[in-house]
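Here is one chain, start to finish.
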Amino acid sequence: MQRIRSLREVIEGYDALLVDVWGVMHDGRAVFPGVPELLRGLREDGTVVVLLTNVPRPSSALPRTLRRLGLPDDAWDAIVTSGDAIRLELARRAPGPMLRIGRDTDVALWEGLGLETTGLDGAAFVAISGLADPTETPQDYARVLRAARARDLELLCANPDIQVQSGDRLLWCAGAVAREYAALGGRVVQAGKPHSAIYARARDAIDRVARRHVPSDRILAIGDGVATDIVGANRMGLDSVFIGTGIHGDSLMTNGYLDVRRAEELLRASGAAATYAMARLA
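Its structure:
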């Protein structure tokens, strides 16, 4: 794994970027300094920039949020979300009925699918987009997960992330609840990173923007999530950049620099490998 300080060092080898959002471009509160300028400049030079995120909402809902955080529309070409991908799975199961657990604020995720909601006893499957409260942990869902497992219900998870960084806090995501359900032997369906469904949509977006087929060896994936961004890139045969801060904070930094040896150990523990490593995107 090669440590780089700027994408400019290697960008000539690629025509398109798949860029993770939370932890790479912003911390949940504001966009990191230099990110808009970097991405805007790469686009001006002809690089296709696709934002690839496990946000459990349709991509149409993201631009407004990104603008509020400080990322303008001219910093990217397309957005592909886990919400986009899981909506296809949800639609296939309509009208359900569905037991929705966790938060109920991701309204756009469920809209227009013709799904009915119900209690556990009448449910055909279970769905989750996120935990209901920032103070909750996956253990708060143990009881309902055991009951769903007793009925052998599928769990559809709209966000495979385990945790995300929000300012100086780590928050649990729906993927952590899905992991608990899988540990019980439950059937889990996920479509975001590292699963193939979201990458198929991302590849279509790249080719649409480029107006040609862009081969895999000309696509560079960038992310801070080992089990999502880097494992996903490995599965899809894509080169990748591991961002050593983000969800990892300063734990991989030594004297202000990314410790490549420690980063490689972290990746290796998950059976993953990255082509390049950077402390931060910009």
